[in-house]
Design goal:
Layout (H helix, E strand, L loop, with lengths): L18 H19 L19 H4 L18 H12 L8 E5 L5 H8 L3 E6 L2 H14 L3 E5 L11 E7 L7 H14 E13 L11 H12 L2 E2 L24 H9 L18 E8 L1
Helix pairs in contact: 1-3, 6-7
Length: 288
């Protein structure tokens, strides 16, 4: 997608080729290197500290995955995550001293990057280990970064934020709950504040359910009461980059049974496989 006014859209690897994107890639590489040298732990794109316990992660990257050139740690931070961070940064005016609330991003590369830029960053997360590590990291790096163990459905802050962000979290929340969360975003934003998110798009799990531009409109734009920035209709490029492991060509029998048990897929899909990738990431930018 070449049109610079189209920001509410699905992911495109070519988005990472601009001079501005390349600069952020370099900054992320430098930050990862610095943090590793100081012993600061960063959560992976899976929201954990160790991908060794995630045997399906390479499959999830999709058929034909290739890393970006010259990245320092593709193992933990594939180009998908770089795209999410870069796309949010490119389409906001983040400035030192601003207050940012990141939903579900404790110990994440994105929250660390924002804190390294001098923002006052607050994160909420359900995983206590990510929260505790995030607070320890803030002490080590002398960042203005506070992390709280808190459910996004029960946010409790008595001040307003310049920015609220979320990087691939909403698809993990039941649809009814994500709509209720979005209804509360507006009251937590300062006038003129921005709400910027990324999410799984076309993920075939029955619990994800963000598959069309209408879904984006109904689940995020309408409930939030916020104004969309950039293109008013979500741009849906048909390219898919990721693969749901459930449909991998080599049948993962135990894994498939667990997915059916957890209601991600229906029993009669057990023997279904796919030869092509089946989903991607999307982005949305709103303003109060």
């Amino acid at each position: 997608m070449k049109n610079s006014t189209v920001i509410n859209k699905t992911m495109d690897r070519e988005d990472l080729n601009s001079p501005q994107a390349i600069k952020i890639i370099e900054e992320l590489n430098e930050l990862i290197t610095e943090l590793r040298a100081k012993g600061v732990k960063i959560s992976t794109w899976y929201g954990s500290f160790d991908l060794d316990n995630e045997p399906l992660e390479p499959i999830n990257r999709g058929y034909g995955y290739t890393p970006l050139d010259n990245v320092v740690d593709d193992r933990n931070f594939p180009w998908f995550l770089y795209w999410e961070i870069i796309w949010i940064v490119l389409h906001n005016r983040f400035e030192a001293g601003q207050h940012l609330l990141d939903l579900g991003g404790s110990s994440s590369l994105f929250s660390y990057y924002m804190a390294s830029k001098g923002l006052n960053v607050t994160t909420v997360d359900l995983q206590q280990d990510l929260v505790d590590n995030g607070n320890l990291s803030a002490e080590i790096m002398h960042w203005k970064l506070q992390n709280y163990a808190m459910d996004m459905r029960d946010l409790n802050f008595d001040f307003e934020f310049d920015h609220i962000t979320s990087v691939c979290v909403f698809e993990h929340i039941p649809m009814f709950a994500r709509v209720e969360i979005n209804k509360k975003i507006k009251v937590m934003l300062k006038q003129g504040g921005h709400f910027s998110i990324t999410f799984d798009y076309r993920n075939p799990s029955r619990l994800a359910r963000i598959n069309t531009a209408q879904d984006v409109h109904d689940q995020f734009i309408i409930p939030s009461g916020l104004t969309i920035r950039g293109n008013s209709k979500f741009y849906d490029d048909p390219t898919n980059y990721l693969l749901t492991p459930f449909f991998y060509k080599k049948r993962l029998f135990k894994y498939k049974l667990s997915c059916i048990r957890d209601k991600h897929f229906l029993p009669w899909e057990y023997f279904k496989t796919k030869d092509e990738n089946d989903y991607t990431f999307g982005s949305l930018f709103l303003k109060k």
